[in-house]
Each structure stands twice: as C-alpha cells, then as structure tokens.
Design brief:
This protein is α+β, with helices and mostly antiparallel strands. Helix content is about 20%, strand content about 20%. The protein starts with a strand and ends in a 29-residue tail after the last helix.
Length: about 140
C-alpha cells in the first residue's frame, strides 16, 4: 500500500470520517453536522491511498499557545503502517502551530502512538475537565 499525507482540508472525505468517528469510543453517535463544524474549524491532516481516505487527525487550537489533538483515526486496513504517527507528526510540524506551548489529547488505548512525540500523562492536580450533557452533540441518548 502506497499512501500519502495532506493537510488540505478540501481532501477530507467527511462521509467516511463521520462514519469512523460516530462509531468510535470517544464520540459515539456523533451528529454529522457537529462533525462537519468541528472539521471546518480545525487544522486537519488526512492519509490517502489512490484517493481513498485511510486516516484522519485534527487539531482544535487558538493557533498561538494551545492545541488539542483529536479525532485521530486510522482505517483498520491501514493500521500498523505508521499512518497514525505520520498524521500526528504532520500536525505537530504544521507552520501555524509552531508557537504552541501546550498540546493536549485524550486516549484510552493509543498511548504508544503519542509517547514518541513527547506526550505524557498530565498532572491531575492542575488539569480539570467539564463534561456537559452529551445530548448537545450526539445522537446517542446515554453516556
């Protein structure tokens, strides 16, 4: 499989990406319109093989000091080929993100994808989160 990377948002195949994300553990039932808005307001990277979307990642950021790496997904057929690491690397190297002083992400099972880039567990004494009612962004009715 010969794949390429792109940070061109017009190449993202949102129907494919939405299907992946709405079935993922971190955004079950994600509404299509919410997915579209999230990608429209983020920096993105995609991996492609002969025009077919193999993977995706996005960064929500102020493009100055803070970035949240999210929605990193690689199609099952392309896992183990370095696609996820390449997507992350492309976004970390993005010219608009070179003054970022804090990168964050959440993962339940892919720590080894991110650790080589310097990601580490956060200090629970300083990090907090707020989880609003899921019905605001999802078609899922329960957490």
């Amino acid at each position: 499989m010969q794949w390429t990377l792109s940070t061109d948002p017009s190449r993202i195949q949102l129907d494919v990406v939405h299907r992946w994300l709405e079935g993922s553990y971190w955004s079950p039932g994600l509404r299509r319109d919410v997915c579209e808005r999230a990608f429209a307001n983020s920096l993105v990277a995609g991996a492609y093989d002969e025009g077919r979307q193999l993977g995706v990642a996005r960064v929500a950021s102020d493009r100055a000091t803070f970035a949240w790496l999210c929605d990193v997904y690689v199609d099952e057929a392309a896992r183990g080929l370095g696609v996820g690491r390449a997507l992350v690397g492309a976004l970390i190297a993005h010219p608009e993100l070179q003054t970022i002083r804090r990168w964050c992400l959440g993962t339940r099972d892919a720590h080894e994808v991110y650790r080589p880039f310097g990601f580490a567990a956060v200090d629970p004494a300083i990090m907090m989160q707020y989880l609003p009612d899921r019905s605001r962004w999802s078609t899922a009715s329960s957490p």
